[in-house]
Amino acid sequence: MSRTYVPPGGAPPISGLALGLDVGGTKIAAGLVDLSSGLILTKRVIPTRATRGGDAVLADALVLARELDGDATARGI
Q1: How far, in Å, CA of 31 to CA of 43, rounded?
Q2: Residues contacting 37, CB < 8 A, separation 6+
Q3: Residues 6+ away with beta carbon under 8 Å from 57
Q4: Domain residue ranges in the chain
Q5: pLDDT of 6-33, one tens digit each?
Q6: Considering the entire predicted model, what is its pTM?
Q7: 4: three-class secondary structure by DSSP
Q8: Is the distance from CB of 34 to CB of 11 less than 8 angstroms?
Q9: Residue 36, CB half-sphere, CA atoms under 13 Å: how many?
Q10: Superfamily classification of domain 8-75
């Protein structure tokens, strides 16, 4: 059975994948979401270690994004 995610407010259904990043003071969380179902396909969480500075935190967030992109490619999605 196929499910379609319909956003609130009467917006049209959406499909595809989305990468979400949540950069906080204690952790960086990243997830790959199937927009047609709303399901999280894969996720990763690492400590922020903010004392290293913004450039290092941004670099870690980019590494997570690339890893999830690699996961999607490996799954064939």
Answers
A1: 4
A2: 3, 4, 5
A3: 23, 28, 48, 49, 50
A4: 8-75
A5: 666 766 665 688 899 999 999 999 999 9
A6: 0.73
A7: coil
A8: no
A9: 6
A10: ATPase, nucleotide binding domain (3.30.420.40)
